[in-house]
Amino acid sequence: MIESSKILYTKDLAVGYKRKKSDDYILLDHLNLSVENGELICLLGQNGFGKSTLLRTLTGVQKPIKGDFFINGKSIGSYERSQLAKVLSIVLTENLNIGEVSVHSVVSMGRYPHNNWLGMLSGKDHMVINNVLEITGLSSYKEKMFNELSDGFKQKVMIARALAQDTSIILLDEPTAFLDIPTRIEILSMLRSLIKQFNKSIIFSSHDLDLALQTADIIWLITKDQKIEVGSPEDLVLNGHFEKAFNKKEIKFHPQRGIFKMNRTADTRIQVKGNKLDVIWTERALERIGIATDGNEKADGVIQIDNKDGKLIWHLTFNSETGLFYSISGLIKYLRNK
Amino acid sequence: MSVAKRKKIIAAFLFLLLGLSFFFDIVLGSVRIPLNEALNILTGSFSGNSVWNTIIIEFRIPKAITAILAGSALSVSGLLMQTFFRNPLADPFVLGISSGASFGVALVVLTAGSIGINILFLSGLLNKIGITIAAGIGAAVILLLITFVSKKVSSNITLLIFGLMLGYIIGALESILKYFSSPENLQGYVIWGMGYFGNVIWNDLFLLIPIIFTGLIIAFILSKPLNLLLLGENYAVSMGVNIKAIRLLIVIAVGILGGVITAFCGPIAFIGIAVPHITRKTLGEFDHKILIPAVCLVGSILALLCDIISQLIWHEQTIPINVVTSLVGAPVVIWIIIQQRKVKHSFAME
Q1: pLDDT of residue B181 exceeding 60
Q2: A and B: number of Cβ contacts within 8 A
C-alpha cells in the first residue's frame, strides 16, 4: 500500500484512561488502523468497549496511552489546536440548544478556523457556506432559527458546519443515536453522497449494526479481546467476526439475514409452504412465539398458504389436528394456546 | 424591514436613550437645579450659583460616568459568565463573585486600623486602590473556585446551588468580621454594601476608566471563541479554541470588571443577569462582537435609569441603588425562570 494515500494512520496505539495511582486503564491496545481518501468507516462495537474513547483520542481531546497516530504524515503531538481544526472536524451526539442563532450562522462558525480574529466572513467564506448549504439541502432553511429545528435537521446543520470547516477528515460520534429510523437512513446516505462529492474521509461510530452493514465501506469492529477487526461489512460477516463480537446468550447474529435474533431454543418445528413473501412473514411470526421454521423432515406440523381470489388462507396441520385461518394473528393466537 | 435595518434602528434608539438618561441623571437630583442653569453649567458657561456648579461638576457628572462604567462592566461580565457556563442564570452576583469581592473589601475596611499595615490604606486614593485590589482578588478567587467546580459537576443547577452556598459561607465569614469591627468601620461597610455610584470622584475615575476599558477590551477580543463556546466546549476545541487560555482570560476579565465595580460602587444586584437577556431578546443576536457593545449600551442605560429612580423615589433623599436594581432586576429573573423552557434553548442545559 502506498503510504501517501493514507490520510490518517495509527501506530501501535493504545487508548484508555491515564491513572495516577494505579496502572493505566487500557480499553483498546495495539491498534494499527489506517484511513484512506474517500472512505466511509464505521466504528462498531458494544457500548462500553471504547468507541467514544478511541474517537476522543483521534480528535486529540484525549492523549494516547501508548503509541501515536499521524494525520497527513504528521504526528498528532506536533499539531497546534488551530492547525488541527483545519484538517479534522467533529460532529457529536449531543442535542444542542443555542439561543438566537440561525442555521446560516451555525454553519458559518465552521469557517472560524480559517478567518480572522473577529470571525469576519470573507468572499471565499460566503462561497463555501452557500455551497455547503446547497449540497446539504439546507439553503431554504438558512434563515431559520436553529432551536426551532427537529433533531434530525439539527444534526444535518452540524454536519454542514463540519463541511464548512473544510477538513479532510470528519469524525462523527454516534451521529444517529437519538434519531428515528427514516432520519438515520437520511443522515447516513447524506454522508455517503458527501464522500463521493468531496472525496473526504468520514469515520462515524455506531452501535446500530444494521445501518452500519448497509452504509460503511470499511468497518472497524471492536472485539471482546480489546482489538479492532478491520474489513468490509461482508468480509466480517463471512469470516465470523460479527458473530464473535456480538453473540450473547439471549441474542444471536443471523448471518443469512444480517440481523440479530433472540436466541430461543425451540421445541416445536413447523414447515411453511406457499408464496415466498407470504412464507417469510409467516415464519417471522412463528419465530417470535418460539416456533422453529427451518425443519423439513422432523417438523411437527405444516402450514400451507393458499391465495383464493386475492384472499390468503392458512391451512394448518399440527398434532393431527387441522385448522383454517384467515390472518396471521388468528394463526398465532391459536398456536400460542397450544 | 430587513434584519440589518431593524438592528440599526434599535441601535440608534439605544444611543438616543443613553444620551437622554445621561442628561437627566445629571439634571435631576435631590437638590433641585433649574433646567436652564444645569444646561449652562453643562455647556461650560458657569452658573452664578457656585454650589450648583460644584454639585453638577464635582458630583453628578462623575456619578453618571460611574453609572455608565458600572452598567457596562456588570453586564459584560454577566454575558461572559452566561456564555462560559452555558447557564442563563449566571452572573457575578448569583455565582458569588460579588460576594468574593465584598469579602475582599470587608477584610480591608473592617480591619482598618486594627492591623498595622492597613494604616497605609486609610487615606484617600491609596485606600481605594487597596479596596480595589482586595475586591479584584476576592472576585477572581471565587471565580477560579467556581470554574474548578464547574469541571467536576455536569449540572448547571448544581453549579448555581454551589455558587449560592459559597455566597452564604462568605456571608458568614463577613458577619464574623462585622461582629469584631469598630462601629465606625462597620457603618462605612454597611453603607458601601447598599451600593452607590456617587462615591466616585474625578480622581478615582482616572483609575476606574482605564481598568474597566481593559476588561471590556479583553472581553471584546474574546468574541470569536465566545461564539464558538455557544456550541459547547467540545465543538469549540475542535474548531481551534485554546480552551485553557480562553478560560483564564474570561476569569481575568470578570475578575477585573466585577471586582473593581464592586470595590467602588458596592455589590450591585441583578444588572449582570438581566441586561444580557434583555439585549439578546431585543436584538435577536448571538454574535458576541455585536452583543458586547450592545450590552454595554443597554447596561449603561439601565444603570442610569436606576440611579435616576433612586434619586426621585423619595423626596430629597437618595435611596440605595441596590434597592432599585433589585426592584427592576428581580422581576426580570423571575420572568427568565418562568420562561425557562424557552430560555433553556439559549444554552445547552442538561
Answers
A1: yes
A2: 86
